[in-house]
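Moderator note: this is an archived Q&A kept for reference. The question asked for a predicted structure of one protein chain; the sequence and the answer are reproduced below.
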Amino acid sequence: MAVRLRMAVHGVRNHRIFHLVAVNQRQRRNAKPIELLGVYNPRLKPGETTKTVEWSPERIKYWLKVGATPSKTVTKLLQMGGILDPSTPLSPNAAAQQSSSTNPGPSSETAPVPPSEPGAPSAQPTAA
């Protein structure tokens, strides 16, 4: 069973609460999770200046160790919280760099284009 760490949405409109959960990746977003790992409430209470996340770092590290794949959003949160190192292959930036190094795109060198002859048809379409 492939496990994914992702955010599940709860609460009424304009008062959302996000749960960080470990869930089978084939299930829908708000399906019953295998385990609740944390809670993120993006709304600030009066007098607060920062948003907080309540989570269990030991359980998150356990799920990452056994092969759970975090979503992009969860990866960013884990990096900001210091649980996940930005240089790990789970990072979206590291994955993009790794794929570009293994499968290089078109090279920066271009072949010279021969000049067209004055009487030859042009390759560009003409307006009718």
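Archived answer notes: Helices lie at 57-65, 72-81, 92-102.
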